[in-house]
Amino acid sequence: MAQIAEDLLLLLLDNASAQPCLEKARRDRVLSAAVLLDLAHACLIRPSVDGDPAPAGRLVALTPRGRLDPVTEPAFRMLQRRALRPRSAVDKLRRHTEETLLTHLEGTGQIARMPLSHRQTAWPVRNRDRVAYARSQVLSALFDRRPPTPSTAAVITLLHSVDGLGALLSLNDRGWRWVHGRAGEIALGSWVDESHTGLAEVNLAVTASAIRAALTA
């Protein structure tokens, strides 16, 4: 399950228009990065290290242990063919990731497709339990300093990296100063020390650091 990418898109759709509330350029980047972080959390990719055949700074594919998620499989197969720099991986994935996610969420009954015109479509969330939980986790991590789950930490990290938290929150200056400070801590990996973590969470944090640099460069 591509939990990070799915949660992120559901959060961006959770508004009165039922359309993603982050403009397309940033949205394509964070959704593509989210798919890569789902693979990292599943320990299917990681940044290259000394001794790898791939040059430093590349994302490398590891050995799969079963069937792949339909959302993440294209990204994994791409990295299987060739290790890529995080920015290159994001750029290659951004063309199709959103449509793949929307189709998957519609197919699993989590959103509905509602044509508005020949160019516009609304995507109302059909069951708000999941998105309400994801939103509560984001708010709790940011405002209550509760240790975030890996998915929540990844969502916050990605949106913070592209200055996109305004898509979810409306705050005064004091509130934004707090949120940017806390989100910055999470983006730097503080959540790993705050939570009970294992190899999957550490790999997620390390990969997120590499991908965050690509998003902010």
UniProtKB/TrEMBL annotation:
The keyword Zinc does not apply. It is a peripheral membrane protein. Pfam families: GPP34. It comes from the Bacteria. Keywords: Golgi apparatus, Lipid-binding, Membrane. GO terms for molecular function: phosphatidylinositol-4-phosphate binding. The keyword Membrane applies. GO terms for cellular component: cytoplasm; endomembrane system. InterPro entries: GPP34-like, GPP34-like_sf. It is found in: Golgi apparatus membrane. This is GPP34 family phosphoprotein. It comes from Mycolicibacterium litorale. The lineage of its organism: Bacteria, Bacillati, Actinomycetota, Actinomycetes, Mycobacteriales.
